[in-house]
Amino acid sequence: MLQLSPGAKIEEVEFALGQLPDVKIVEGSNVLTSSRQALSSLLVGIAVFTALQLTALLILVSLLFSAIVQERYREVGLLRAIGARPHQVMTIILGEAAIITGLAGLAGLVFGAGLLMIFARSLGFYFDLLGIPFSWPPAVVLQLGAVAAVAVSVFLGVIGAFVPAWRARRLAPQALIHSGSPAT
Amino acid sequence: MLSAQSLTKRYGVNPGYDAVRDVSLELQAGEFISIIGRSGSGKSTLLALLGALTRPTEGRVMLDGTDVWARPEAELAAIRSRHIGFIFQFPSLLASLTAVDNVAVPALLGRTMEVERAYQRAYDLLARVGLAERADAYPESLSGGEQRRAVIARALINSPPLLLADEPTSDLDESTETEIITLLEELQRAEGFGFILVTHNLQLATHAQRVYEMRQGALAPLDLPDVTAEPGYRQRHFPFRILSHAP
To answer: How high is the ipTM of this complex?
Structure first.
């Protein structure tokens, strides 16, 4: 339809296209261009912030489970004393961590979905006025995103609880019983 | 059945502190022995060593000819589950489980029997210790004596050949204390397990076939009938609980 030679100017292209029937030339607004650039920067910023937040969360979860497991040393010691195998102790602690952080992930997902809906009705509406329609990603992307978010939560919980669980696994039952709080 | 050979448990280093010093002890199947001594004399540590709850610094614990601490941790867990029942001196039921769940837990953890059979035996044992009506109660609603009975039932769920009781009546009143010891004796006669009782109470200790005394980590046989007849012996050696039982 249109062939450009090297060194062709934008104005020349516009003029040439303008000669064609049924073709309307719409120039990108500076506002839209700067919005796109700002959103791209925002996305990169959010990605970096999320990575830092996940690292901080990992440390926090590890400290939290370290305290939780230490508080339950006597209970763990009792279980070991009545025949629990070390891997059963690990499974119990890591299982609890997975359930707790998985539920927390689900709660975060609901909260995030709520924020996204608010965004669609506020900032999205504003962009719509500027000619940038807000469109939801395909359902499959949303579903995969949700599953990935919960999976990352569970993963963080399991990794965070691993060291305290491993420490509890290695201690003798007597040491666990005498360093823990009462079971009942 | 159980043979402790030159057991020493040392805490700390240079020079450290020997909670148990060079203790040797033999227990035959179905035998009942008791160990008395003051607080801090090392009784509980010795019982923990015999029950495979803590590794000795020196010496060996042989159970049916097997060096317990030479086994890997997974096998140690099986030994604790199948061969040893342990009654602690503190309330040791898991608060989030009912009495019958607590009793069934060792069988479920050790996979020593099917779930249905484990619960059937748990109910049977609770009935034998007089808690048939309290099987579905949570520990917080059980009295001290009832909790101790449930712990005894839990210790016997896998029919262990060895029962170790670490001051099982320390926080109970006198009549409940006697009830618990009588119950343990009846169960021991019925089940035929070897039984080691650690206690402060000389009167309870005398129920055993052999009595030992623990002093500063060392264990020595106590020839009870003769020495306790000596005027003032009990007050000199066991002023803590004996006073209340002294005639």
So the answer is: 0.84
